[in-house]
Every structure is written in C-alpha cells, then in structure tokens.
Design a protein that fits this description.
Layout: H1 8-11, H2 51-64, H3 85-91, H4 94-97, H5 109-126, E1 130-132, H6 138-155, E2 163-167, H7 173-180, E3 184-188, H8 198-201, E4 209-214, H9 227-236, E5 240-244, H10 257-260, E6 264-266, H11 269-272, E7 287-289, E8 301-304, E9 310-313, H12 329-365, E10 381-384, H13 395-403, E11 411-412, E12 421-424, H14 432-451, H15 453-458, H16 470-475, H17 481-486
Length: about 475
C-alpha cells in the first residue's frame, strides 16, 4: 500500500508528536492546571503522528476528494454548479464575519440591509411577497413551508385539512417533511413523462387536503404544462400549492413560481444560487410565501423602517423561531454576491443555458442510451440505462466506469419510474468542450459495454478502492479504526 493511501491510524507510531504546548512562566504545562476530575483515566485512542505526516495525510486526502472545482459533476436533481470564488471572498469579510448575533441591531445595519436586500431579490425572482432566510437547509425549508401551510388552515379554523398530496416522482424529502410536520401523505400518480396526472389528482381533492407539493420542471426534467389547471383545481378545493425549489435553476429569470399559482416555496441557495454543497452544510433553504401568508413567517424578521434603518422584529402571529437567530448568514452573503455579480441580464441567461446544455447531451447520446421520455427537457433528463442491455451491463456499471475517466457519476436509480434510471444535469456553467468530452466518454463506455462488458462490470479500475461489496458495506459498516483493526 502506498504511503498516501494509508489511513492516519496506520501512520501512527507510539510516542510520536506533532505539537508542543508551551510551558507557562512557572515552568508548568497546560494539563497540570486542569482539575483531576476533568482528566481522562487513560489517554484517548488518537493517532500519534508528526506535524509533517498530518499535513501530508490531509493534503493527499483532499486531493482524492471530487468536487465541482476538480471535474464535471453532472449529478441530476442536485444542480452542482460552480461556486464563484468572489462569493467566498465576500463571505470572509471581517466586517461581516466578525459580527456577533446578540449585538445591538443599530451596530449591524450593513448585515441587516444585506438580509433585507436578499429576501427582496428572492421574492422578485420567485414572484412571491416575502421570504424568510432563517431555515438552515432545503429540507428545513420544506418543513418550515409546510408548517406555514398547516398553520394557515388552523388559524382559519379549518382543522380537518391534514393531508398533503405528493407526486410519486417526488424527492424523498417531500413526504418525509410532510410527516415531520404532522401531515398525512397522499400520493398522486404521474404520467409516463413524469407530469402529474390531472385525472388522478381530481378525486383526491376534498376538504381534508391542506395542499400539494410539486417541483416544476418535474423530476424527469420536463415542464409541467398543466400547472395552471392544477393550481386552479387545488385552490378551488381550498388547498395551497407548495413549490419544491430543487429544480428552480432552469426557470431562473424566465418563469416565476408565484406566477404559476404557488403559494409557498423554498429555495436551495446551494443549488440555484451557487453556494457550496457537501460536508453536511452549511446550507440554506429560504422560504417564500404569497401575500396572504406573510404574517405566518417565522421569527425573527428584518424590517425596513420609515427612516431607512433596519430593525429586528418578532410577531405573535408567526410560527415562532425555527432556527438560531437568522440562519446561516455566511451562506446568504455568497448567494447575494452571486446575484449582484450576474445582475438582471445575467440571471436571465442561467435557465436557457442550463436547458441548452442538458438537451445537447441528451440528443448526442440518445442513440446509445435508452431515452424513455421524448421531447425537449429543461435542466436535466433521464436515461433508462443502455439502449443495448443484452450484455448485462447496468447503470451502476456505467456510473463506476465514468470514474476511471475523471467524471463524477450522474444520479442513478432515481427517479424510481424506470428500472435503470440515470439522471444527468450539466448546469449552465460547463463549457462546450467539457460537454463534448463527457459525451465522448459516455459513447466509449457504451461501446465497451457491447464489445468488452467485463471491463465495464469490473470498474472502476483506477481508483484507490476498485470494486467494494456495497451491500455488505451498507449492512455492516466499519466506522472506527478499532473495528477495522479487529476485523
């Protein structure tokens, strides 16, 4: 095993240190001052390595990580767009980063103005009345939006509205968020192209329905052409429309959810507005509402006073607080920098470019990969595996083979409408040259699947771990070095 492939515990040697705590002016080290009841009875099982070994280990580990900065990341439904570095510079400005959330709002006017400007920019882009930036992530935003939906009906005495309609192609967070919010999930069927079946929807709409959760374009990347009819039916039944903002990117600057009839929505800043994915966060899932729901948005809220200054307010009508202070402010700064960088004209180019890139890849590969849904897509599309399935090469095999050529695999086996789903989303930030290279590799893998299927089935061949037992790893994960050593 190469030195840089070892885990840090394998580099450990007893007695080796990478630090030296200074002695105080009396000649004692820091640990001698700690009370005995705060000290461990025996040393923690930590690796003992030098500073150089630590630096090399984590540098090599970071080089093994794949991200948008290292290669093409066509992860459908996740909109892995490039994160401009100016966003990071702005978010690191000490004038903002050094603020304390408990300080007097009079001394944080710049931050409050940024919050105010961003929520208004999002409201303008979404066609809604007001946004809260407090939710920490998209799923947190979903929960907040559904709490608004439920509280709206309760505040009107309509307590029997406890059901939320969710398409059978929905992202998994939709039914999960509804359940956490205490609502019952009712599934509506989709047509072969992933669009909601309006005829299946109609009998579900009664006086127990609180609303419907949708994304548009749908999970197959196709625009819901009957959205105005769906909105009319749901509203006539007394329900609200919730927009899952996961697929907002192709509509950005062209179509607004509020204009389609949606009453509530969340936006994933890490998707549509270029803030980073990964690492478990930090994320941000702002929630916007129509004018008849603004009083229910959670505390605290930033308001602009008549004299032009900004203040922090709370309301008894609100849901209460759903996060600490104002959510992940550093993420908001990155999204605001992105909006300012693009400007009105730049924002209007995002959706069309994302749509153009997706259709370019789709049409370039449809002869070798099975295309289950015809017609122009938006930001993403789905193949149902290889067109030629005679050699037994699966979508999983294709995804793993892509790793050998330096590409991240697309989303696989989702949506569940097709057995061999492969969801590809290039985003608007990729060049024609990158798309062509990806297309060439996908065509090469398809040829290999027909002529040399064993190579594809054995992939990946060049990664540190080539072909693990994924089922075994999922059922019996080894999460500590001690378990690995004793295995």
């Amino acid at each position: 095993m190469k030195e840089y492939d070892k885990i840090i515990f394998e580099l450990s040697r007893p007695g080796r240190k990478g630090y030296q705590l200074p002695a105080d002016r009396f000649g004692s080290d820091a640990f001698s001052k700690l009370p005995a009841d705060l000290l461990r009875e025996k040393p923690a099982e930590l690796p003992e390595v030098s500073e150089l070994e630590v630096v090399r280990h984590y540098t090599n580990l970071s080089n093994k990580n794949f991200g948008v900065d290292t290669g093409f990341y066509p992860l459908g439904s996740c909109t892995m767009k490039y994160n401009p570095k100016i966003n990071e510079e702005v978010a690191a400005m000490p004038e903002f980063a050094g603020l304390h959330p408990l300080q007097d709002p009079a001394t944080a006017q710049g931050a409050l103005e940024l919050y105010w400007n961003l929520q208004n920019a999002l409201a303008s882009l979404a066609g809604l009345a007001e946004f809260t930036l407090n939710p920490y992530a998209g799923a947190h935003g979903e929960l907040t939006g559904l709490m608004v939906m439920r509280q709206y009906h309760i505040s009107r005495g309509d307590t029997k509205r406890t059901k939320v309609i969710v398409p059978d192609t929905a992202h998994g967070t939709n039914p999960a968020s509804a359940m956490v919010a205490g609502l019952e999930v009712v599934e509506v069927k989709s047509k072969p192209n992933g669009s909601i079946d309006v005829e299946d929807l109609k009998p579900l709409l009664d006086d127990s329905v609180a609303g419907i959760m949708m994304t548009n374009p749908n999970t197959l990347g196709m625009f819901e052409t009957e959205i105005l009819e769906i909105a009319k039916l749901v509203h006539e039944a007394g329900g609200l429309l919730y927009y899952d903002g996961a697929n907002l990117n192709p509509l950005l600057g062209k179509v607004r959810p509020g204009d389609m009839g949606f009453d509530i929505m969340h936006i994933n800043l890490h998707k549509t507005f270029s803030t980073p994915h990964g690492g478990g966060g930090p994320g941000s899932g702002p929630v916007g509402v129509a004018s008849h729901l603004t009083h229910l948005l959670p505390n605290p809220r930033v308001v602009k006073k008549e004299d032009g200054t900004f203040a922090v307010e709370t309301s008894d009508d609100a849901l209460g607080s759903i996060s600490t202070f104002f959510g992940n402010f550093g993420v908001m700064m990155k999204a605001y920098a992105y909006i300012l960088s693009l400007g009105r004209d730049g924002i209007r180019e995002v959706g069309p470019m994302a749509t153009l890139n997706a259709n370019y890849i789709k049409e370039s590969l449809r002869d070798l990969y099975k295309l289950p849904v015809e017609g122009p897509c938006k930001h993403e599309f789905v193949f149902d595996g290889l067109a030629d399935k005679s050699t037994g090469v699966t979508t999983l095999n294709v995804a793993k083979r892509l790793l050998d050529f330096g590409f991240h695999a697309p989303t696989i086996y989702f949506p569940l409408l097709f057995h061999e789903s492969m969801m590809i989303e290039p985003t608007e930030t990729e060049s024609r040259e990158t798309l062509d290279e990806f297309i060439d590799v996908m065509r090469r893998v398809a040829r290999e699947a027909a002529e040399d299927p064993d190579t594809v089935k054995a992939a990946p061949l060049t990664t540190p771990i080539s072909h693990p037992d994924e089922t075994g790893a999922a059922k019996n994960p080894i999460l500590t070095y001690k378990a690995l050593r004793d295995a």
